[in-house]
Amino acid sequence: MRDINDLMILILPGLGGAGADHWQTAWGTAFPGMQRVEQVNWEKPVYPDWSARLTEAVARAMRPIVLVAHSLGTSLTMRWSFEQPEHAKKVAGAFLAAPTDRDRFDASPSSPVRGWGPMILKPLPFPSMVLASRNDDRVSFERAGVFARAWGSTLVDAGNLGHIGSAAKLGLWPFGLFYFGQFIGSLES
Questions:
Q1: φ, ψ at 11 (rounded to 5°)
Q2: Cα torsion angle, 150, 177, 184, 18, sign
Q3: Cα gap 61→54, rounded to integer Å
Q4: Could you give the domains of the chain?
């Protein structure tokens, strides 16, 4: 069982960067030990740029890392973990909320984010937990279940929270914190 104080927690927001009303921002404010991986452009995400920022943050970390990703941040986690296997060895686990179905959105010419797919359907190189909503407009609960099974993740039914972002007005999101604590407790030292 891991002690959270022995870990570096990196927050990986999605498109827009997790504004003031987002649970990731609330967590980062409430828990100063959590560090947001800042991106150059939150509105026009380019995968190689975002990946490079994550690699830099991981390379600087002096402790094992837990990634706390939302939406496009889960896509970043997925793809990066397979493209950067040496850096991914420093990751103790990933807490993945509201994965976006890149296969669906990369195929859509109207999507503001393209070039992040395809979804990789094989086990992640570290333990993970996926929290999915039953009424998310960016991924069906069933498709999120497909991702969780393929990645070897624990799947958590978050109920009807839409895309589990700012619009849901979750504040500190106690439900998420509960499962985050369980996830941290499940990680081996």
A1: -90, 125
A2: positive
A3: 11
A4: 4-186 (3.40.50.1820)
